[in-house]
Design a protein that fits this description.
Elements (H helix, E strand, L loop, with lengths): L2 H21 L5 H28 L5 E10 L4 E8 L1 H24 L6 H19 L4 H19 L6 H32 L5 H4 L2 H8 L3 H18 L8 H5 L4 H10 L4 H8 L1 H4 L3 H22 L5 H21 L3 H20 L1 H15 L11 H14 L4 H18 L6 H21 L5 H4 L2 H18 L4 H22 L4 H29 L15 H15 L5 H11 L6 H26 L6 H10 L3 E4 L8 E4 L6
Antiparallel strand pairs: 1-2, 3-4
Helix pairs in contact: 1-2, 1-4, 2-3, 2-4, 3-4, 3-11, 3-16, 4-5, 5-6, 6-9, 6-27, 9-12, 11-15, 11-16, 14-15, 14-18, 15-16, 19-22, 20-23, 22-23, 22-27, 23-24, 23-27, 24-25, 24-26, 25-27
Length: 649
């Protein structure tokens, strides 16, 4: 058997295990846990055997071109796999830690209502993780990248009938999507720099990289900064660190495998994988090191004042990842890999034993607490100490910073379009769009100076559709319709910009039409059943209508362009027709595509997740002492949400 065949096995085993776990009935806990346990164990064994043969053959770098999904005269979308020492460390750590987590979770989640859902999601995550670390080009890596983002959302919202886990899951997913903007723009710019879907094998060729960057230093810097944006968001580096404590709402095993060991280190992996591309760009290396240093300093201070064990461990892990960013920027690849392995093992262990640590500390404080004598100091050092202490308790207002710089401007711009209603969209925007399509088909002559700006205008209209959908609360149907209109206007923008083949448009629009209409139908059906269609609060209908909830989730994923859906391939085709000097057009398209994912997940969560208990249920749970309560937001009528103790231990 050739070594390249083993790479297929590393992807195939998690894929088969995930498919089998979907077929196992929820009531058969033993069989579910066995499927997950043996999937991770078998993959770990195959990786260990592979590494032995790989070492015997001298640690040869492997590249395996797998499947060409679409090919035209100027575009090729292919699935490519790549294996070197960076992949070796990450894939081995992933297999070993997933194996341990599946064993631990068999007992930890025993008789939990979401037992099957947890193991399904963990195996789905493991599949996406392997695709990411074994990817041979940006397109394949982005497939795994998106799978990781979705599985993270599902695990943070594991206690999906509670308000806080659902709300925090949306927040985590939203920050992930900000990082996706960088990934998408990096892919777009790379297409124009290399005139192909460049493989990571070619990036390891220093002469080839220098030749392409010669005279194109600007686009090289742009690609590097875009990749850094994606890496910083995925690894919760400054200024994106605020999502990490929110992610701890999920079960302890998922916190260990995601935010202690594997997923949170993938930003480091992206920098290691693309290091040959930006190693000669001193400015980029300085920025990476500065971000790592700022994150390490702030996370150290924040971790020391946390009252939650899981949050404290999470910020401690961010400190080490910040140091890894510095190591990668300095060119210490081997040191960064060793550091990753050690930190992943340590944080996994700390998070898995955190419930026991909490009980030990409570007992110690109850029986052996001795108050310390207060010392009065009024010097400069004490004032600085108290200032840093207060800022660290507030987590340096990083969450407010993200809201002020990113989400609030988008929401404010969307609110300026509140004059748009379902009828006005149907009566004005749909006819105007049809007029634009007819004029494009029959052909018309307008001055070139005006025609030059049409793609920018149409793409900006598409972005406005998404921003209005993002701020919309009155009607889920209107919000969903605006998302469909976003895709329609974007196709018109690209068709005006460059020749967009009819077959390529058909690929793109097939997913939009099918998933868009199916989602619209489910929203209308839900309104007829319940009489509610607004998005002011979390409805939590997943318990009452589980099948429609699952179908709507599929519709949301298809409309947002989840990997391997026709929309995903169509979006990649769309970006291939944006020229290298049309930065704003690419930015509008990337923002529209990314924000669409945020809005679709938000609509799904508002309609089907986050049930609040009524007062009688809350009092009953409080009397029986089965959980603790958290205060909801004012927009949700200040309701109290029941939160399982396993989600916060």
């Amino acid at each position: 058997m050739e070594l390249s065949t083993w790479i297929q096995l590393m992807i195939g085993i998690p894929l088969v295990g995930f498919a089998l776990s979907l077929l196992v009935p929820e009531r058969k806990e033993y069989l579910l846990s066995r499927v997950a346990f043996y999937t991770a164990g078998l993959n770990l064994l195959s990786i260990l055997v592979f590494l032995v043969f790989w070492a015997i053959q001298g640690f040869e770098t492997l590249n395996l071109k797998e499947i060409v999904l679409y090919k035209s005269h100027d575009f090729e979308f292919l699935v490519d796999f790549f294996f070197d020492r960076v992949s070796a460390v990450y894939v081995l750590m992933g297999a070993l830690l997933t194996f341990l987590i599946t064993f631990y979770s068999r007992y930890y989640l025993h008789r939990e209502s979401g037992y099957k859902r947890f193991f399904n999601t963990v195996l789905f995550f493991y599949l996406g993780y392997n695709v990411t670390v074994l990817a041979g080009n940006f397109e394949t890596l982005f497939v795994g990248w998106e799978v990781l983002g979705l599985s993270s959302f599902l695990l943070v919202a594991f206690y999906r009938q509670n308000y806080l886990p659902t709300r925090n899951a949306i927040k985590v997913f939203s920050v992930y999507r900000i990082g996706d903007v960088g990934m998408i723009l990096a892919m777009w710019a790379s297409h124009h720099l290399w005139h192909e879907n460049v493989t990571f094998l070619k990036l390891n060729n220093a002469e080839l990289v220098s030749e392409h960057l010669l005279g194109h230093s600007g686009i090289g810097l742009f690609i590097s900064v875009a990749l850094l944006l994606a890496a910083a968001a995925k690894s919760a580096q400054f200024p994106f660190s605020s999502w990490l404590p929110r992610a701890m709402e999920g079960p302890t095993p998922s916190s260990a495998i995601f935010y202690g060991s594997l997923s949170v280190h993938l930003g480091v992996f992206l920098l290691l994988r693309t290091f040959p591309f930006w190693e000669n760009q001193i400015a980029v290396r300085f920025i990476i090191g500065a971000i790592g240093l700022i994150t390490a300093v702030l996370s150290t201070m924040i971790a020391r004042v946390q009252t939650s064990v899981k949050t404290q461990v999470g910020y401690a892990s961010l400190t080490q990842i910040g140091i890894m960013f510095i190591e990668v920027a300095a060119g210490f690849e081997v040191l960064a890999l060793i550091h990753f392995a050690g930190n992943a093992f340590l944080r996994t262990y700390q998070l898995l034993v955190s419930p026991s640590i909490v009980s030990y500390l409570i007992r110690e404080q109850f029986y052996e607490f001795e108050p310390q004598e207060k010392k009065k100091r009024f010097g400069l050092s004490q004032r600085l100490f108290l200032s840093f202490y207060i800022w660290s308790i507030k987590e340096w207002n990083l969450d407010k910073l993200m809201n002020k710089l990113v989400f609030r401007p988008f929401k404010s711009l969307g609110h300026k379009l509140d004059f748009l209603t379902y009828k006005s969209v149907l009566f004005y925007f749909v006819p105007s769009y049809l007029v634009g399509v007819v004029l494009l088909v029959i052909g018309y002559n307008i001055p070139e100076s005006i025609h030059f700006y049409l793609p920018f205008v149409f793409s900006f209209i598409a972005l406005l559709m998404v921003l209005k959908a993002f701020s919309e609360r009155r009607s889920a149907r209107l919000s969903w319709t605006l998302l469909i209109m976003n895709h329609l206007w974007m196709v018109l923008a690209i068709a005006e910009n460059e020749q967009f083949a009819l077959g390529e448009i058909a690929i793109y629009m097939s997913g939009v039409i099918v998933f868009g209409l199916s989602g619209l139908g489910i929203i209308s059906w839900l309104k007829a059943k319940t009489g509610q269609s607004g998005l002011y609060e979390y409805q939590g209908y997943v318990k009452r209508y589980p099948v429609p909830a699952f179908l709507f989730l599929l519709s949301a994923l298809g409309l947002m362009g989840f990997p391997l859906s026709p929309t995903f391939l169509g979006v990649d085709l769309l970006f291939s027709h944006i020229k290298d000097d049309q930065f704003f057009l690419a930015l509008f398209a990337a923002l529209a595509f990314v924000m669409e994912g945020v809005v679709t997940v938000r609509i799904f969560a508002r309609l089907f997740l986050g049930t609040k208990l009524d007062i009688t249920e809350e009092d009953d749970y409080s009397r029986r002492g089965r959980g603790k309560f958290s205060l909801g937001s004012s927009r949700n009528r200040r309701g109290l949400a029941f939160k399982s103790t396993k989600s916060t231990n």
